[in-house]
Amino acid sequence: QLVESGGGLVKTGDSLRLACAASGRTFKRYGLGWFRQAPGKDREFVATVDWIGSSIYYAESVQGRFTISRDENTLYLQMNSLKADDTAVYYCAAAGGRDSATSQSAYIHWGQGTQVTVSS
User: Fold this and answer.
1) How many CB atoms lie under 10 A from the CB of residue 50?
2) pLDDT tens-digit profile of 26-45?
3) Is residue 17 scored above 90 in pLDDT?
4) C-alpha distances in Å from residue 19, one per residue of 7, 67, 73, 115
5) pLDDT per position as a tens digit, 50-99
6) Residue among 54, 8, 35, 14 at smallest CA distance from 109
7) 1: Cβ–Cβ under 8 A, 6 or more apart, which residues?
């Protein structure tokens, strides 16, 4: 089970750090990712990291502003220079293998999501 935390209400230009902790089992040998779903839109890819943290990809919309990282037990998403368009429910997910992956179909385990709201 994956549990996200760190969401909240912030203003444009602010920063937030999301965390995703594993509960009941370890995901340290799996690729992990962050996705988000804005109101009225489909869930979309945000960032992904492989099991050792060496292969990282970002969505173009967050490149240069967001940073994904992981340690043995927790996945993080540092979000800087937040924009109103970043408002969404953010989900962490664990893939079925060790590689990073941008496609949702590669992910097996999902968290319940944490709300991020950026006011302009």
Assistant:
1) 19
2) 898 999 999 999 999 999 99
3) yes
4) 9, 12, 10, 12
5) 999 999 999 999 999 999 999 988 999 999 999 999 999 999 999 999 99
6) 35
7) 22, 23, 24, 25, 109, 111
Q: CA 22 to CA 103: how far, in whole Å?
A: 21
Structure tokens at 45: 């890819």
User: Environment class of residue 31 by beta-carbon count within 10 Å: exposed (0-12), middle (13-18) or buried (19+)?
Assistant: buried
Q: Are 62 and 47 in contact (CB under 8 A)?
A: yes
107 by Cβ neighbours in 10 Å (0-12 / 13-18 / 19+) ranks as: buried
Three-state SS string over the chain comes to CEEEECCEEEECCCCEEEEEEECCCCCCCCCEEEEEECCCCCCEEEEEECCCCCCEEECCCCCCCEEEEECCCEEEEEECCCCHHHCEEEEEEEECCCCCCCCHHHEEEECCCEEEEEEC
Q: Looking at residue 23, what is its pLDDT?
A: 86
